[in-house]
Amino acid sequence: MTAGAPATGHSGVVDASSETPADLGARRARQYLHLVDSGRPDEAEQLLQGLTDTRELVFVGAGFTLLARRIGRPLPTAMRAQASSRQVRLGRLRDSNRGDVDGLRDWLRAAAEEVLLVAGLAEPDAAARHRLLDLTLAG
């Protein structure tokens, strides 16, 4: 088992009690992206509406940031620099909405769009982009 990875039992099922807030946020970020990528935006929105604690929202945002950076690593330097600039703007949006749950949800929607944008830049072919997202979302 890797450091920070949730513990699994013999069945391979994740033991939710061992999941850290960061792990849970990353899982929710992947779940949100999967719903959006699968054409289920209403369910994705329900997921966001179910998050009522600012801490939960911030951990989901951290999950989006991690995914965007992971997907963007192989991009050419100029594209990586543009993505980095967008991450700075997203950070400002987050900071301006500290303590405002609805504002943080807006930040999460923008952060998710950034992940999908970077995935599109990394792999412009739609079928390949879906495979890239599937591999990245798998963990």
What would you note in describing this structure?
The chain has 139 residues and is an all-alpha fold. The chain has one domain (20-137). It contains 6 helices and no strands. Helix 5 crosses helix 6 (126-137). The longest helix has 22 residues, at 101-122.
Q: Quick gist of this model?
A:
By secondary structure, the chain is an all-alpha fold. The protein is 71% helix and 0% strand.
Kindly list the characteristics that best describe this protein.
139 residues; mainly alpha; 71% helix; disordered N terminus
Mean pLDDT: 85
Discrete helix count: 6
Beta-strand level of the residues, as a percent range?
A: under 5%
- C-alpha Rg (nearest Å): 15 Å
Classification by helices and strands: mainly alpha
Order of helices and strands: HHHHHH
> What would you call the shape?
globular
What kind of sheet is the major sheet? none
pLDDT < 50 stretches: 1-11
- Any idea how many domains? 1
Instruction: Give the end-to-end Cα distance, rounded to a whole number of Å.
Output: 13 Å
Number of strands: 0
What is the helix fraction of residues, given as a range?
over 70%
